[in-house]
């Protein structure tokens, strides 16, 4: 508990220190804004984000700071235990509306029954990014594909021919644009069924996600996300983390077709009972 | 509900009668169908991606009325346009028969609905009488002894597992939202939503199949196939360019989605060649000495269609599977009670 307070205080202090810096940067002229790193270009002249990427953090357990804890499934012992994490939420804490924080706590208490990840449901955004498995960026001029190993979740980022979301969906409807070195992806049209993590952090169908992918070296990307959802949060908030590139020559997204793995869990009670 | 279905049937009939008219008459279905004539491909040079690959990108469909195997009684390889039109009309009418009001099929899938009825959306026009071009009879070669043995073993295993509705594992993999027929490889007409999106980046071609958001990422860097320890539902694909043709070889299938009864030693070789702005010639060859004594080849053109492709979240709302199983349990309970009552 004391550690948690300390971390929270530290993050709050860091945020207090960082925010003016960020504001300051944003207020500067375009020339002064230019980041130190300039990414190699694709043949059509855009920063090249192609590759297989993965995060290196414990955000999928809880995007807020959390201590290590026991496995939610007794039989898994230490192998299923929760590793500690400093959190990826800028400022440390998610600005929930009071009723929404209560709902998150209920989600957490019932996570084994409710977490969509357990049921192999599409992970939603931005959880798909930091869920723990790799994803591949296939970058073309008109479409940028984000292809995730988990459940084979796919996002198409429309760089041209942009439209509003035709209907709500798990992975949302993404329109993208380049701002200098940064790919900005604006996603709306979410349903209210995905979570942000295994701790029950959640959103509504009013969710609006803006992701910023900025190359910071040949093998890392700064990934920043702004979350807006007035039904659940009192103000927009941000998360940020690096993405790391797979450099193995034979790296590839493999199949994690998990429906098969959860069928007994979901439908086992409907199995034919032996005749009595 | 029934009134709505009748109205749709009438609309469908109107579409068919229009499709049955001569080539020169305006006809929505045929107007959308892309030509797939070989002659058109000769002079055509595919546009290039910024990194110089022949450009296959965009939204495509392999929706077709041409069956994989040549129907019994048909001896010619290529129909005349009039014969092809008649074959499409007959096939479309057969599909619409599923929607007889009051039947279970009608309640489940109304094939006159837009999107389920192929003739109302883009389909790849093809004058062939079968997709199979080799062997010359348009039929899958006979299954050899090893293949027959495996098929008997699979049938026995299915029988031992019980009835189709005894447990979720006994149900078809498409109903379970694990994988659907369109993903392949090979890419096969899925009946409805037979849509694909191709995106290319340096070193990769990606083919997204609408059902069930199946993205196949094909590396073009000449890497070797993975060790056979990694077997996948869709196998492992490796691609290269031969002139303007993308050649993709896929092996390491897990055998659980056995294409036409093949073994997990199946090898599929696909050849994609853009033959017009709105057409890709797509040929595949299937090799599996443990099932057939000879390879066989089919041609199933891709026609350009309109995007975008929307998310197909199948498993997430698969109420059908739970309801079917629950219905089967309820039937059993009822039967047991009746049996008790009659004793």
Tell me the number of structural domains of chain B: 3
Structural class of chain A: alpha+beta
Runs of chain A in which pLDDT lies below 50 for 5 or more consecutive residues are 1-32
Overall 3D shape of chain A: globular
Q: Please give the count of helices of chain A.
A: 6
**Number of E strands of chain B:** 11
C-alpha-based Rg of chain B, rounded? 22 Å
* Number of helical regions of chain B: 7
List the helices and strands and how they pair.
The complex is a heterodimer of chains A (276) and B (343).
Chain A: H1 2-27, H2 30-33, E1 51-54, H3 98-109, H4 111-114, H5 127-130, E2 135-139, E3 143-148, E4 154-158, E5 173-179, E6 182-188, E7 208-217, E8 220-228, E9 237-245, H6 259-267
Parallel strand pairs in A: 4-5
Antiparallel strand pairs in A: 1-2, 1-9, 2-3, 3-4, 5-6, 6-7, 7-8, 8-9
Chain B: H1 2-19, H2 28-32, H3 38-42, E1 58-61, H4 81-96, H5 104-108, E2 132-134, H6 145-160, E3 195-201, E4 204-209, E5 214-219, E6 236-242, E7 245-251, E8 267-276, E9 279-287, E10 296-299, E11 302-304, H7 319-342
Antiparallel strand pairs in B: 1-3, 1-11, 2-10, 3-4, 4-5, 6-7, 7-8, 8-9, 9-10, 9-11
Helix pairs in contact in B: 1-4
Could you please describe the fold and organization of this structure?
The complex is a heterodimer of chains A (276) and B (343). Chain A is an alpha+beta fold and 276 residues long. Chain A folds into 2 domains: 1-30; 40-270, no CATH class. Helices cover 21% and strands 22% of the residues of chain A. Chain A has helices spanning 2-27, 30-33, 98-109, 111-114, 127-130, 259-267, and strands at 51-54, 135-139, 143-148, 154-158, 173-179, 182-188, 208-217, 220-228, 237-245. Chain A has a 9-stranded mixed beta barrel with strand order 1-2-3-4-5-6-7-8-9. In chain A, strand 5 and strand 6 form a beta hairpin. With 343 residues, chain B is an alpha+beta fold. Chain B has 3 domains: 1-26 and 79-127, no CATH class; 51-77 and 130-312, no CATH class; 318-343. Chain B has 7 helices and 11 strands. In chain B, strands 1, 2, 3, 4, 5, 6, 7, 8, 9, 10 and 11 form an 11-stranded antiparallel β-sheet that branches. In chain B, helix 1 packs antiparallel against helix 4 (81-96). The two termini of chain B are 41 Å apart. At the A-B interface, strand 2, strand 3, strand 4 and helix 6 of A face strand 3, strand 4, strand 5 and helix 7 of B.
